């Protein structure tokens, strides 16, 4: 597929065969595989008192992130997301430790964008997929839960509110 051997994290890119395919199904499969290995789905809450109590208390707002040290890869991910009509934005930052490389982050946030991601791309990784299922069922997903806890919540063996209270 054209991946070089050795240190490649900052020069890695989408294989030309995939990028040049102009095939939305291939883009979606590539993005799902990349997300399942290197992406993150989490849910945030609001801290401002102007928000209703639910939004201040529970992690309800979905955020998908794919981080890389390859600027080229981040731009190619953005290209494919644009082709799939999934709104997103790019961000970058330099970690405090100057030995660390600059990070490029693709961010997809909001309910509509998450649902569009699920419709066109999906999630296969059970760690990330159970977060989505919890959110879908309860309208929020508590942070710092394990895969087993999320499975137990989904199977009715564990009360989600007891998990939040730390019981």
Mean of all residue-level pLDDT scores: 92
The N- and C-terminal alpha carbons lie at a distance of 49 Å
Question: What's the name of the CATH homologous superfamily of the largest domain?
Answer: Homing endonucleases
Number of domains: 2
CATH class of the largest domain: Alpha Beta
DSSP helix count?
8
Helix content: 40-55%
Which outline best applies?
globular
Radius of gyration: 18 Å
Number of strands: 4
Low-confidence stretches: none
Broad structural category? alpha+beta
Largest sheet: 4 strands, antiparallel
Can you lay out the helices and strands and say which pair or pack?
Elements: H1 16-19, H2 24-38, E1 39-44, H3 53-57, E2 61-68, H4 71-83, E3 89-93, E4 103-109, H5 111-120, H6 126-138, H7 147-154, H8 160-165
Antiparallel strand pairs: 1-2, 2-4, 3-4
Which descriptors apply to this entry?
167 residues; alpha+beta; Endonuclease I-creI; 2 domains; four-stranded antiparallel β-sheet; globular
Characterization of the model:
The chain is of the alpha+beta class. 44% of the residues lie in helices and 16% in strands. The protein has helices at 16-19, 24-38, 53-57, 71-83, 111-120, 126-138, 147-154, 160-165, and strands spanning 39-44, 61-68, 89-93, 103-109. A four-stranded antiparallel beta sheet has the order 1-2-4-3. Helix 2 crosses helix 4 (71-83) and helix 6 packs across helix 7 (147-154).
């Amino acid at each position: 597929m054209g991946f070089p051997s050795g240190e490649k994290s900052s020069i890695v890119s989408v294989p030309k065969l995939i990028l040049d395919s102009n095939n939305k199904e291939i883009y979606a499969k590539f993005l799902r595989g990349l997300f399942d290995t290197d992406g993150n789905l989490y849910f945030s809450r609001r801290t401002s008192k102007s928000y209703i109590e639910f939004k201040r208390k529970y992690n309800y707002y979905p955020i998908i992130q794919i981080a890389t040290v390859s600027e080229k890869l981040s731009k190619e991910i953005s290209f494919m997301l644009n082709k799939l009509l999934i709104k997103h934005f790019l961000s970058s930052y330099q970690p405090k430790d100057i030995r660390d490389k600059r990070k490029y982050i693709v961010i997809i946030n909001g309910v509509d964008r998450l649902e569009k991601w699920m419709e066109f791309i999906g999630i296969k990784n059970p760690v990330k997929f159970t977060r989505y299922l919890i959110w879908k069922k309860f309208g929020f997903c508590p942070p710092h839960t394990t895969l087993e806890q999320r499975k137990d919540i989904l199977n009715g063996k564990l009360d989600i509110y007891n998990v939040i209270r730390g019981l």
